[in-house]
Amino acid sequence: MSDLICYPTIDTFDQEVIHSPIPVVVDFYADWCGPCQSLAPVLEKLAKDYEGKLKFCKVNVDNAQQLAIAHRVMSIPTLLLYKGGNEIDRIIGAYPQEVMEQKLAVLL
Questions:
Q1: What pTM did the predictor assign?
Q2: Catalytic residue from among 24, 26, 33, 40
Q3: Is 36 marked active-site?
Q4: How far does Cα 85 stand from its chain's mean position?
Q5: Residue of 6, 36, 43, 73 with catalytic role
């Protein structure tokens, strides 16, 4: 686990994500999910590459079902992209780093 990635709970989600001064990428995942596992190192690398520009958070849907339901996460991995406290896009599925960078450009 990287210290560049936060792990918000139902109690800290608003503080970590909605009230973040910089745009946030929230990865809804599960430990048993193969595509989630393949996406994890990509997100670790992106968290380093965009340090200070984007914040990366991960929510384990098995441990935080309320958050998954509240944010209408139907499949995993699902990444929610937040800017100014609002969800502006979502990415469903795992993609290579180059594709992820293109999709994250809306936050920069």
A1: 0.94
A2: 33
A3: yes
A4: 14
A5: 36
Enclosing domain of residue 31: 5-100
Average pLDDT of every residue of the chain? 95
Give a yes or no: residue 105 inside a domain.
no
What confidence tens digit (pLDDT) does each residue in 55-84 have? 999 999 999 999 999 999 999 999 999 999
* Percent of the chain residues topping a pLDDT of 90: 96
57 in active site = no
Rounded mean pLDDT of 27-47? 96
Report yes or no on 108 lying in a domain.
no
How many CB atoms lie under 10 A from the CB of residue 103? Answer: 16
Residue 35: CATH number of its domain: 3.40.30.10
